[in-house]
Design a protein that fits this description.
Blueprint: E1 4-13, E2 20-30, H1 35-47, E3 56-63, E4 69-72, E5 76-78, H2 84-97, H3 102-113, E6 122-125, E7 145-147, H4 152-161, H5 167-180, E8 185-191, E9 200-204, E10 208-212, E11 224-229, H6 235-244, E12 247-250
Parallel strand pairs: 4-12, 5-10, 6-11, 7-12
Antiparallel strand pairs: 1-2, 1-3, 8-9, 8-11, 9-10
Helix pairs in contact: 2-3
The structure holds pimeloyl-AMP (WAQ) and magnesium ion.
Magnesium ion binds next to loops.
């Protein structure tokens, strides 16, 4: 198997404390010949990140021994929200239509706007609104994902047509597609923690990847991710899939032009 998982995370120690602040993370699956370029791209990203200087950059490069699972790309849509109030209302309305309880949705908003920056995602029971991840400081980090080589050029074309062919969108769409492909997850909501990136999204199989502009004000370093768990689902199995199962996103159906 000529497939490799390349991943990076960058952090900085908080002065006078044991803890560190998360700055940036990225990852992909690529062939051996692309490892070099991919890893240096990630290092460059860590060194120039708007969240500031890291004092530690960890790059992991690992060969895969099983063929990745192919999962479908979610269809992409963009809402026309123009301020955080409208945007958060849109998030709330969308979640409530998906069998997420009001309590669970409100708790998710608290994660997104909370003070503590997590490296990973929170998992919230869609009915009770309770947190279910084993480490609520770190969260669950989705790993081992990439875009299938056959889908890369049509993905680039589809996103370019909409003027959003950026690394940020490609990576978030891939992550959301991996998450949505698991039957125990009802929906995901995400807001970037980058101070200069204000578009977030809600994703679910029936909603697609719904981009929500202006979810926060420019300059805010709040952000995070929440996955809503189907009540009664096996959390451990779901986390095992998110963290360890290698997946490649492919494009299965013709994408509607919107
Ligand atoms: N797994 C789980 N959670 C993650 C991961 C991961 N691999 N990477 C980041 N997070 C969590 C973590 O709590 C971060 O603080 C938060 O998500 C935001 O991460 O179409 O860039 O990398 O224009 O800042 C959305 C793009 C971009 C919308 C989201 O997130 C669009 C983004 P960031
Ligand atoms: Mg970020």
């Amino acid at each position: 198997m000529n497939m490799w998982n390349v991943r990076m995370r960058a952090a900085r120690k908080i002065e006078n404390k044991q803890a560190e602040v998360h700055i940036s993370g990225a990852e992909t699956i690529c062939e051996r010949k692309d490892i070099d370029r991919t890893a240096s791209g990630f290092i460059h990203r860590a060194l120039t990140h708007p969240r500031g200087w890291p004092d530690r950059i960890i790059v992991t490069i690992e060969q895969l021994y099983e063929p990745p699972l192919l999962i479908p790309m979610l269809p992409v849509r963009t809402a026309d929200t123009s301020d955080p109030e409208q945007a958060l209302q849109m998030v709330l309305d969308t979640l409530l239509r998906l069998d997420v309880s009001r309590k669970a949705a409100v708790n998710a908003m608290k994660v997104l706007t909370g003070k503590r920056q997590m490296r990973g995602a929170a998992i919230i029971d869609a009915s009770s609104g309770k947190r279910c991840e084993p480490d609520s400081l770190r969260g669950v980090r989705v790993s081992r994902l990439g875009v299938d080589a056959n889908a890369r050029s049509s993905l680039a074309r589809m996103l370019s047509r909409r003027g959003i062919n950026t690394e940020t969108v490609r990576e978030a769409l891939t992550l959301a597609s991996k998450v949505a492909a698991h039957p125990s997850i009802i929906a995901e909501v995400c807001m970037s923690d980058d101070p200069d990136y204000t578009t977030g999204y809600v994703a679910a199989p029936s909603v697609g990847y719904l981009r929500i502009p202006n979810m926060k004000l420019m300059g805010s370093s709040h952000g995070g991710r929440v996955f809503f768990l189907k009540p009664g689902a096996d959390v451990e199995k779901m986390i095992e899939y998110l963290e360890r199962k290698a997946v490649l996103m492919e494009i299965r159906n013709p994408q509607p032009r919107t």
